[in-house]
From TrEMBL:
Annotated source species: Chitinophaga polysaccharea
Entry GO terms, CC: cytoplasm
Catalytically driven reaction(s): L-serine + acetyl-CoA = O-acetyl-L-serine + CoA
Transmembrane segments annotated in the record for this chain: 33-53
Protein name: Serine acetyltransferase
EC number per UniProt: 2.3.1.30
Length: 182
């Protein structure tokens, strides 16, 4: 998918529209959209142009606290709810229509049975201060409650809450993912 189509899908998640006015409003008023704007341009380019966009990403990483390397695989319709620290490992894979809240960490485990990084499915809502680490898979339509510590595979349509995370099947994200892009 082209960088501009990904940018439009991200914009749609914020406004439900993708007009020029919405793009300008999103770019100047929504920190998460602005960061992802440059992230998408960087991921869709090569050579010196990519280096140029990486400088913008670096600037906004310091300004807003988003630590999302340009190597991270992120699907369409990515939504960052508020600015604040968000740390995502550059090898992580994130599906379509995912919501991220402040304080979220999606990280790597460097040894043991969980060695690796998470794979996150489509239509996942991740609450504030949730920690998701290790070589685990989060299924589609999962709600990860604020403050959850997730180190296990989570089946589709589930709710995870607590530290350590407890999975409750059949209580997914219905009503939490708005303006779903298709």
């Amino acid at each position: 998918m082209s960088a501009w189509k990904l940018i439009k899908s991200d914009l749609y998640r914020y406004h439900g529209r993708t007009g020029v006015k919405d793009l300008l409003k999103g770019f100047f008023l929504i920190e998460g959209f602005r960061y992802m704007f440059f992230f998408r341009l960087c991921a869709g380019s090569t050579g010196l142009i990519r280096l140029w966009w990486r400088l913008f990403i670096r600037h906004y990483a310091y300004k807003y606290g988003f630590q999302i390397p340009h190597t991270t695989r992120i699907g369409k319709g990515f939504y960052i709810g508020h600015f604040g620290t968000v740390v995502i490992n550059g090898n992580a894979s994130i599906g379509d229509n995912v919501n991220i809240s402040p304080g979220v960490i999606i990280g790597q485990v460097s040894r043991g049975r969980l060695k690796g990084v998470p794979t996150i499915g489509n239509k996942v809502w991740i609450g504030s201060n949730a920690v998701i680490v290790g070589n685990i898979t989060i299924g589609d339509e999962v709600l990860i409650a604020p403050g959850a510590y997730v180190t296990m595979d989570v089946p589709a349509g589930s709710l995870v809450m607590g530290n350590p995370g407890v999975v409750s099947p059949g209580k997914g994200v219905e009503g939490y993912i708005l303006n779903e892009c298709r």
